[in-house]
Amino acid sequence: MSAEHTSSGSLILGRVRWKRLAVILVPAGVIAFGLIGLTAQGAIASNISVSGQQFLVTSTQLKGTGFEQFGGQVSSSSGGTQPVVVSGIGSATLSNLCQSVSVGPVTMRLTAGGDGTPVSADNLVVDASQLNGSTATFHNISIGQDAGTLTEVPGTEGASGGFGEQADSITINNLVQHTWMTTAGTFTLPDLSVGFGGTCP
Amino acid sequence: MASGPGSEPPARPEPPTAPGERGRLSGTLRRLPWGHHATQPGESRPLAESWRAWRRSRPFWGGLLLVLGGLELMVVPLSGVLSHGAVKLVIYIGIGGVFGVLIGVLLAVCGVLLCVNPAHRVFYGIAGVVLGILSFPASNLGGFFIGMLLAITGGSMAFAWTPVEQPPATAAPEPEASDAGPGEAEPSGPEPSPVSVEPADNGPADNGPADNGNVATPAQARLPRMMAIAAMPLVMAAGLLGSPGASASQASSPQTCILWVICIPSPSPSPTPSPSVSPSPGSLLPGGILPGGSPSPSASPNPSASPNPKQKRASATPGLVAATATSVIKAGSADLTDFAYQGAATLPTATGSVQEMKFTAGSLTLSGGVTATVTQDGATTTTTSPALDFSGSVVLYATQLSGCEGPLCVTLTPTNVLTLLLKLLGPVTSHVSLTLTSVTTDQPLVEAGSLQASGLGISVG
């Protein structure tokens, strides 16, 4: 502070100029809204990586190739640890995806993949505390394998010695997940819409 | 940094100096703190003044918004990581998370550098805007829009920040002197006002804060505009979010900025070593031995195999490593077709090996409240389903299998399985259909061509 005080004699004051602001804000806004529009059409893939809070994910049908599941832990933002079931899917499509996230006091509801074109995700990893499905079909499944030796989703393994399972392909209908963490390499979100309040069906 | 945009008006109780501050030449600025020092000998006054002069002499609010936007983009993927402490944590930050954190870090750095080095504000401002736009596809839809809006607005404000007036010769060495030219040509509204206010301003400044009311009008005419600039991201966010309260949560974040910047490298490398180390001993040792001569090497290290010649040996699936976590599957009934006992197989585990019975079946249907319980790290994962239907060359390994066929209840283990199966099934011990009730399977390992589950539920706790 003392440095500024002595040099305050030569400080140059300035301010924000509105025309200059518009020169950059307007094109930036146009590009941003263009990106949002392209994403909402599913033309651009998005990276999703959320953690630290519990949120709800529902989908009428999840199809995936390359499936792994094992136990793990995440820490919640309140400080405690939360045991979770980690599901990894190499390549997944989700019909009628709905995800509700709380950002601060606001609950956002993202829906996508409703208009005939499902959401697709690569290297999807979901840490869930609860997972339900009306019916589930697995092909070439192996249950009870060491979680450290799972191979279906490269780069995703559990702790050595843990209980794991994997399958070549998977279909889950009417999926409801309470998840603590979601990451995906890419997400294409056709028919994206963002709503406020309310929960997923 | 300590005061958010909203707290500005209450923090400055002396509106008369505000108009002078803005378009003020360095000469008058130098005079102001001294004048206050004379009339008011409090320590906080010159501190506040110089802090304020520091803020006004650089694109402070733009930089602050960039820092906040960067932090928000980091918080969304990392908030679960921050509090991990000593807990063995399974974290998967894919390339998406890395990009999100990287963009957040760069934005925060841009914001800080804007304040440290305002001469390069055009570069940092444009970089902030570009990073903000990039964050939409790259990081959780721009941190669910909030971080993107903060970054675009902050970068634009930094870009649009210009020195107000040509400083006199004393300020010549300052690089901003060249930028002051376009500033003079600016014809917009507030430009004439500092000139007209200038003489009126000197008076109240000397008289002290007693006659605030006289000069309050020009000051308050400008204050809303500053507020509007500062509040712009909030308004834009509110338009999308429906509530401006969302950004309030970020007000508390700046303290952890340095912590986060340091913390970022630590979580991402940590997941990589653990999986890479764990599979190597498991796959190297047993995987290499088993396919070659499956029964003989597995029998030799096991002392129980040689003294018991009645024991039937079976080879485990190559490369298959059994979990060591305690697991049990219980079912009201199990229907098996084409059932056969293959023998005792030695399965490698992460810490050694385990002797398990190996059964095969054409199909295996578990029904009547199927419950699979896995306990590891103090947590229990329970999988429930009314019916699990395995088909397509089912292979079942278990350390213990108990169930009842009619009134006869047996508990099969690798040592007694042959004699008991003879009792249970008669002389035919392979390719039979069998229905067991009250089935309990310990340490199960199931492989199947397909599994159909109805009403599947998995919960942890």
The radius of gyration computed from the alpha-carbon positions of chain B, rounded to a whole number of angstroms, is 37 Å
Q: Helix content range of the residues of chain A, please?
A: 10-25%
Biggest interface pair, residues each?
A-B, 105 and 139 residues
Shape of chain B: rod-shaped
Q: Alpha-carbon distance between the termini of chain B? A: 42 Å
> Hey, roughly how much beta strand do the residues of chain B contain?
15-25%
- Following the backbone from N to C, one meets helices and strands of chain B in this order, namely HHHHHHHHHEHHHHHHHEEEEEHEE
Order of helices and strands of chain A: HEHEEEEEEE
Low-confidence stretches of chain B: 1-42, 83-93, 169-309
Percentage of β-strand residues of chain A = over 45%
Could you explain how this protein is built, in words?
- Chain A has 201 residues and is mainly β.
- Chain A has one domain (45-196).
- Helices cover 14% and strands 60% of the residues of chain A.
- In chain A, strands 2, 3, 4, 5, 6, 7 and 8 form a 7-stranded antiparallel beta sheet that branches.
- In chain A, strand 2 and strand 3 form a beta hairpin.
- In chain A, 57% of the residues are buried.
- Residues 1-9 of chain A have low confidence and may be disordered.
- Chain B has 461 residues and is of the alpha+beta class.
- Chain B has 2 domains: 5-263, no CATH class; 285-460, no CATH class.
- Chain B has helices at 8-11, 17-23, 26-39, 44-56, 60-82, 95-116, 121-138, 140-144, 146-160, 180-185, 192-207, 212-241, 257-263, 273-277, 279-289, 295-299, 417-425, and strands at 161-163, 326-348, 353-376, 379-398, 400-405, 408-412, 430-442, 445-460.
- A 7-stranded antiparallel beta sheet of chain B has the order 6-5-7-2-3-4-8.
- In chain B, helix 2 packs across helix 11, helix 3 (26-39) packs antiparallel against helix 4 (44-56) and helix 5 (60-82) packs antiparallel against helix 9.
- Chain B starts with 7 loop residues before the first helix and ends with a strand.
- The model of chain B is unreliable at 1-42, 83-93 and 169-309 (pLDDT under 50).
- The chains are: A mainly beta (201), B alpha+beta (461).
- At the A-B interface, strand 1, helix 2, strand 2, strand 3 and strand 5 of A face helix 2, helix 3, helix 4, helix 5 and helix 6 of B.
- Strand 6 of chain A pairs antiparallel with strand 8 of chain B, so a sheet runs across the interface.
